[in-house]
Amino acid sequence: MHRLRAGGDHLIAVDYHAAVMSQGSRESESGDEWGRVDEDGNVFVRTADGERSVGQYPAGTPAEALAFFKERFEALSFEVELLQQRIRSGVMSPEEALESVKTVSAQVAEANAVGDLASLAARLEELRPLIEAQREARRAERVQKTAEAKEAKEKLVAEAEKIAEGSDWRAGANRLRTLLDEWKALPRIDRASDDALWKRFSGARTSYTRRRKAHFAEQNEKRDTARTVKERLVTEAESLADSTEWGPTAGRYRELMRQWKAAGPAPKEVDDELWRRFRAAQDTFFGARDATNAALDAEYAANAEAKEKILVEAEALLPVTDLDAAKKAFRDIADRWDAAGKVPRDRMKALEGRIRAVEQAIRGLEDEQWRKSDPEKSARADDMVTKLEAAIAQVEADLAKARESGNEKQVKELEENLASRQSFLDMARRVSADYS
Question: Which pTM does this prediction carry?
Answer without folding.
Answer: 0.42
